[in-house]
Design goal:
The chain has 217 residues and is of the alpha/beta class.
């Protein structure tokens, strides 16, 4: 890529304070959809509990005695009342508890995260804050910061689902943002591709952006 991307940096009042040049190695505008597919599928598979269970004919109760003699009755031969053909019988080929999880290589995870960030960049869905510090843990004060950004509102004037990434998690910030339903908070070092793609907007502090850039470059 010949030219680097630039993003405006805002303060907590919604005013632009500077222009930030993004690292070309991370924000190159490329999206590796194959890696994103693998990582998203892997994440969803790892969330599955795999607890669905059915009982076979050997596990259901009853059925110890042969219902009737083998021959001479004119009826079909039956060895147990717990045959899958009978009511209250066992289940053929039913689900049993299993582990759906599998590992995805770290390189593919990094490529997927890089692709998801470039996707948000193309959609113009990234907001960079110079810093985010709260003196108290009041939700009202925290919510006031995000009202300055009209780009966080959808067509119906309702806030869009947003992910806020910070470099450090202090107590006031965590408590103040916990009651804002459209906002999800995480550390930059712990974020992953599915989390970025799941939210419509991505908000980062300048320090968080530097940490992600360092992590992926």
């Amino acid at each position: 890529m010949d030219q680097a991307f630039n993003l405006p940096v805002y303060n907590c009042e919604g005013k632009e304070v500077e222009k930030l040049e993004l690292n070309r190695e991370v924000f190159d505008g490329k999206e590796n959809l194959a890696c994103v597919y693998q990582v998203v599928n892997g994440y969803l598979a790892n969330q599955r509990q795999g607890l669905a269970a059915t009982k076979t004919r050997g596990e259901v109760s009853g059925g110890g005695k042969k219902p009737w003699k083998q021959k001479g009755t004119g009826r079909a031969r039956v060895g147990s009342t717990r045959s899958p053909l009978w009511r209250h019988g066992g289940v053929i080929f039913g689900p049993h508890p299993r582990d759906f999880s599998y590992k995805v290589p770290q390189k593919i995870k990094n490529l997927a995260l890089k692709s998801s960030l470039n996707s948000k960049l193309k959609e113009e869905s990234i907001i960079v804050l110079d810093e985010l510090k709260l003196e108290t843990s009041k939700t009202k004060e925290a919510a006031k910061i995000f009202t300055h950004f009209k780009m966080l509102l959808g067509r119906n004037k309702k806030p869009l689902s947003s992910l806020l990434l910070v470099e450090n998690m202090d107590k006031n910030l965590k408590l103040a943002l916990s009651n804002i339903d459209f906002l999800k908070l995480n550390l930059a070092k712990d974020t992953f591709a599915y989390e970025v793609l799941q939210n419509r907007k991505l908000i980062l502090t300048k320090g968080a952006l530097e940490e992600i850039t360092k992590r992926l470059s």
